[in-house]
Design brief:
alpha+beta, Serine Threonine Protein Phosphatase 5, Tetratricopeptide repeat, five-stranded antiparallel β-sheet, 8 helices, 31% strand, globular
C-alpha cells in the first residue's frame, strides 16, 4: 500500500516590495480621484490626488491633476503651486502643455495676468490647444481694463501683516535709491496724484523663496495702495531686478525688469500704466508690455567651447503714451544683451500677435 506523500508546508506570501506598495497606493488614489471628479466632489478629489503625489512624488500626471482639482475647489494658490511643479517634472510635451495651462489658469484667477500670459504662451509652445488660445486671447481685454489696487493701507508695512516672508525693502519719495530708478513722481507739479512709492517683496506661492514676488506700493495723499505681483525679484547667480517709475502727464508708468542666472540667462520685463479714477482711487492698466528673452550657454562653464550662445526673443514691443492714448507696436530696434555683448533682432510680427496690440484709449 502506497503511503501518501507528506503535504507540502504552506508557504508564506512574500510581502510586497516598497515600490510595489507605493505603486498600488498611487493607482488606487488616482482611481479614487477620477471617481470623485466625475461626481464633482472636488475636495475629496484633491485629497486623493495628494495621496497619489505622496505615493509617487514629482509625478507630473498627479501634480497636474492636483492643480486642476485645486482650481475647481477655488484654492488658486495651491493650484498654481502644483501646476508650476508639474511643469518642471513633466517629461512629455502633452503633459508640459497641460501643466502650463493649469498653472496659467490659476494665475489668471488670482489676477496675475503677467504670469498667466507667460504660462499660456509656454503651454502653446508644447502643444497646440484651442482652449489655451482662447484663454490667451481673452487676456487682451483684461490687460486693457483698469484694475483697482489693494488697500488703502496706512503704511506699506501694513500690507505685510499676516503674510509670510513679506518685507518692505525701500520706501522713497521720488529719489533714486540703491539701484532703483524712481523719477520725480511730482514731475514739477505740486498736485501730482502719486506722491510716493515703496517696493515690497513677498513670498511667492509657487516659486522658491529666493524668487519672491515683487509688489509696488503707491502713495496717494496720506494713504497707500499696492499693485501686487509686478514680477519676480530674481537674485543670485548673476541675476537681479530693476524698477523704474516716472510720471507721463498725470499717468504713472512703471517699468520692471529682471534677469535670472548667468549660464542659463532669462530676462523678463513688464510695463504698467497707473492713474486715478474719478472717485480718487488709484488703478492700473496692464501689463501692456511683456517682454521675454533667454540666453542659454550649452557648454559647461568649466570647459572651453566655441559653440555660440543662443538667444530666443519671445516678445519685443514698443508702447507710446500720449495723454491717455497708448499705441503698442513692434519695436524696430535691436535688443541688446549686455551680459553677453550680443544683439538680437525682434521677432517679426511678435507684437502684432498680442491681442491688445494697436492703439487704445485708457480709462481709469
Amino acid at each position: 500500500m502506497a503511503t501518501a506523500a507528506p503535504a507540502a508546508p504552506a508557504t508564506k506570501q512574500a510581502p510586497a516590495s516598497g515600490a510595489a506598495e507605493a505603486a498600488g497606493k498611487y493607482e488606487a488614489a488616482m482611481a479614487t480621484a477620477k471617481q470623485r471628479i466625475a461626481a464633482k466632489d472636488y475636495p475629496a478629489a484633491v485629497e486623493a490626488l495628494k495621496a497619489a503625489v505622496a505615493a509617487r512624488p514629482d509625478d507630473a500626471t498627479a501634480l497636474s491633476e492636483l492643480s486642476w482639482a485645486s482650481f475647481l475647489t477655488g484654492d488658486y494658490a495651491a493650484a498654481e503651486q502644483a501646476g508650476e511643479r508639474a511643469t518642471e517634472v513633466a517629461k512629455t510635451n502633452d503633459l508640459k502643455g497641460m501643466a502650463f495651462f493649469n498653472e496659467g489658469h490659476a494665475q489668471e484667477a488670482q489676477g496675475k495676468l503677467r504670469a498667466a500670459w507667460i504660462a499660456y504662451k509656454y503651454s502653446l509652445t508644447y502643444r497646440k490647444n484651442a482652449d489655451v488660445k482662447a484663454r490667451l486671447a481673452g487676456l487682451g481685454a483684461a490687460m486693457l481694463t483698469a484694475r483697482p489696487l489693494l488697500g488703502p493701507f496706512a503704511t506699506p508695512d501694513e500690507f505685510c501683516r499676516g503674510r509670510t516672508g513679506c518685507e518692505v525693502e525701500h520706501a522713497f519719495d521720488g529719489n533714486q535709491d540703491n539701484g532703483i530708478d524712481v523719477r520725480d513722481l511730482r514731475n514739477g507739479a505740486s498736485n501730482a496724484p502719486f506722491t510716493g512709492m515703496a517696493r515690497i517683496l513677498s513670498q511667492s506661492s509657487s516659486e522658491p523663496d529666493y524668487f519672491p514676488d515683487m509688489n509696488v506700493a503707491l502713495q496717494v495723499g496720506g494713504k497707500w495702495y499696492v499693485l501686487a505681483d509686478v514680477g519676480m525679484a530674481g537674485a543670485g547667480h548673476g541675476g537681479g531686478h530693476h524698477l523704474e517709475a516716472r510720471m507721463v502727464g498725470r499717468r504713472l508708468v512703471i517699468a520692471w525688469s529682471q534677469s535670472i542666472g548667468r549660464f542659463s540667462h532669462d530676462d523678463e520685463a513688464t510695463t504698467t500704466v497707473c492713474g486715478l479714477a474719478a472717485s480718487g482711487a488709484p488703478s492700473c492698466v496692464g501689463p501692456l508690455l511683456i517682454e521675454q528673452s533667454s540666453t542659454t550657454d550649452r557648454c559647461n562653464k568649466d570647459i572651453t567651447c566655441n559653440e555660440p550662445l543662443s538667444m530666443l526673443v519671445e516678445l519685443h514691443c514698443r508702447a507710446t503714451l500720449r495723454g491717455d492714448v497708448v499705441t503698442i507696436e513692434n519695436n524696430p530696434g535691436k535688443i541688446e544683451n549686455p551680459d553677453e555683448a550680443q544683439l538680437s533682432k525682434p521677432l517679426v510680427g511678435a507684437c502684432a500677435e498680442l491681442p491688445w496690440a494697436g492703439k487704445h484709449t485708457l480709462t481709469f
